[in-house]
Specification:
Elements (H helix, E strand, L loop, with lengths): L3 E8 L7 H15 L3 E7 L13 E6 L8 H14 L1 E6 L5 H10 L4 E6 L9 H9 L3 E4 L2 H10 L8 E3 L16 H4 L8 E6 L11 H5 L6 E6 L8 H5 L9 E3 L6 H6 L3 E4 L8 H8 L4 E4 L2 H6 L7 E3 L4 H12 L7 H11 L2 H12 L5
Parallel strand pairs: 1-2, 1-4, 2-3, 4-5, 5-6, 6-7, 8-9, 8-11, 9-10, 11-12, 12-13
Helix pairs in contact: 2-3
Length: 365
């Protein structure tokens, strides 16, 4: 197959919109605006609209992903690869590593890149032996801690096929909207101290701990949650055990203006039990907002072991509540400009895209 040095296919067939999907959109926009031709593979009727106005970006939809032994999916992927003739294919989701790598290898795509954002066990199997030892796929990760974990716990990886590129973000340019409608509807007391949380409502994110944390805080503390999806936690049932707190935990659902969300909170809480380099922490720091986070690997690295935020043990509701109170009562302060500098110096969108371009389209030298 003859390849086009400016073409790329990004596979991201998922039903949920989160950090991985946001980075797929950011990378698609960057490559399209810089003269590359991007084909993004999505599940039908999911996120096509987000890519509509992206320059040089084409959306290819599929009705379902299929299992690892689904030869029809492999055939369809091969047909798409034959049509696009990409230099690089990129699988944004671990569950697609095998299907994408197999199809790309069979069509002789020279550059196969796979993404991993959280610590996952890579089992010894014929499938992964082929993916890494025969197909020569590379893995992109977003933190040094995740890279170290993979190098220590899997024989498939080495310094050449495992690449770390930090997630990146631009400093926000929008101004605070004083009467921002989502918060206005909550009609919070004037003296409210607002704790922001965001993400899918699942056990991994630790949102079942919110009532326990909140009951240890002053009565003017309120929690607002942004996000949809992953509804494996019945928050109504959980909150029914804390009737006095029901008016202090608020669920906004999908928030289209996340910049305003971060500007309207006083502190951001990441209570995750498992996490990679969380984009929501990047967004919080870029808005100059202090952070309390559990010691998930990406957070320790992003916050430089406590220099740029308060870190607690996973599941430690007392420590999380104490960290929030320390910020509320100004016993611990993080100057907004100090937090923003962490983004501009180490986690800028420019750095992320420059390094991604080098990985996806390596020079022929």
């Amino acid at each position: 197959m003859n390849i086009d040095p400016k073409n790329i296919i990004i596979f991201c067939p998922t039903k949920g919109w989160g950090g991985i999907e946001k980075n797929v959109l950011l990378r698609s926009i960057f490559f399209g605006e810089n003269g590359y031709h991007v084909t993004v593979v999505l599940l039908k009727d999911t996120f096509e609209k987000k890519f509509l106005n992206c320059k040089n970006v084409t959306v290819h939809t599929i009705t379902k992903r299929g299992g690892d032994l689904n030869l029809a999916v492999v055939r369809n992927y091969m047909q798409l690869i034959e049509k696009v003739k990409p230099t690089t294919v990129f699988a944004a989701l671990k569950r697609d590593w095998w299907l994408v790598s197999l199809a790309a290898h069979l069509k002789s795509v020279p550059n196969i890149i796979l993404y991993l954002g959280n610590i996952r066990k890579i089992r010894t199997s014929i499938k992964y032996r082929l993916v890494f030892n025969t197909f020569n796929s590379k893995v992109l990760v977003n933190s040094d801690s995740l890279k170290t974990n993979l190098l220590q716990n899997s024989s498939y990886f080495n310094q050449k096929n495992l690449i770390r590129i930090y997630n990146g973000i631009e400093l926000p340019h929008s101004r605070l909207i004083p009467d921002w409608e989502p918060k206005k509807k909550l009609n919070l007391p004037v003296d409210s101290f607002v704790i922001g949380v965001a993400g899918w409502l699942n056990y991994r994110k630790g949102f079942d701990l919110l009532p326990e944390i909140l009951e240890k805080l002053p009565k003017n503390a309120h929690i607002i949650h942004a996000g949809l999806g992953g509804l494996e936690l019945d928050m109504n049932q959980i909150l029914s055990q804390y009737p006095k707190l029901s008016k202090r935990i608020h669920f906004l659902g999908h928030v289209s203006e996340m910049g305003q969300f971060f500007q309207h909170i006083d502190v951001f809480l990441l209570c995750s039990r498992e996490e990679g380099m969380a984009n929501v922490l990047l967004e919080s720091l870029s808005n100059g907002k202090p952070v309390v986070s559990t010691k998930v690997p990406g957070s320790e690295e992003l916050l430089d072991n406590g220099t740029y935020g308060i870190l607690t043990e996973i599941n430690d509701v007392n420590a999380m509540a104490t960290g929030i109170k320390d910020i509320l009562k100004q016993r611990i302060k993080f100057e907004p400009e100090f937090l923003k500098q962490r983004i501009t110096h180490n986690f800028s969108l420019e750095n992320m895209m420059s390094q991604t371009e080098t990985l996806f389209f390596p020079s022929e030298d």
